[in-house]
Amino acid sequence: MSQYKPNLEMYERERIVLESIKTNPNLHHNALLKFIVPEFMAKTTFEKTRDSLLEKEIITVQTKGNMKFYHPAENYEQKSQQHIERNTNNSFHDLKLQIKKLDADYRHKDVDEKIIIANFILRNLLETDNGFTISDSAKNPKKTLYRDEHLTIQQLIYQIFEMIRHDKDFEIIFPTIVSYLGIMMPKDSLNK
What would the pLDDT profile of 10-52 be if each residue is shown by its tens digit? Predict the structure, then answer.
């Protein structure tokens, strides 16, 4: 099972491309490519990184003649907040539907499927809760605007654990899931 860690190389590459675009706004695509490749990354890596930045709407592309110029997106903070909110809400509603369907199907799956599904849903519930927390913090740090959603997520997590508790394979599934969740939980700072 892979560890749940952010891809730091990807973020570093995105930072390099974004910084290069910001400090060199007059470089067209090929000039920017020559500026970054091969010193910082390969051509294919640059293109994937550029595509990722475009997809996330961190940068925009403007065509002048037959040349493409990249620029940091305007109002990125507002757009990113809207993006987080939209994705969080979509995830929230999708997870509610998945759990509703899972309630009937879970006991009929094999042990490995049960573990994979439970881990997937629990991780996504926690990520969705984080999305609501970030949205709350950005909008008003003194007020919980998504109180109902936080409570629903808490209830959905309970529902998943209830499914596991009442499963015939509980003694195998539960320790594995708790172990997996441990990589996402806060560590005891006194044990460092």
Answer: 889 999 999 999 999 999 999 999 999 999 999 999 999 999 9
In degrees rounded to 5, what are phi and psi of residue 64? Answer: -125, 110
Structure tokens at 57: 């709407």
Distance in Å from the first CA to the final CA of the chain: 24
Question: CA 48 to CA 44: how far, in whole Å?
Answer: 6
Positive or negative torsion for Cα 126, 127, 128, 130: positive
Q: Is 18 helix (H, G, I), strand (E, B) or coil?
A: helix
Mean pLDDT taken over the chain: 91
State both tokens at 134. Answer: 């970030």
Nearest to 99 by CA among 43, 165, 159, 176: 159
| 151-159 average pLDDT score | 97
- Percent above pLDDT 70 for the chain: 93
- Alpha-carbon torsion (180, 185, 191, 192), positive or negative: positive
- Residues 147 and 141: their CA atoms lie apart, in Å, by 13
Rounded to 5 degrees, φ, ψ at 72 are: -60, 140
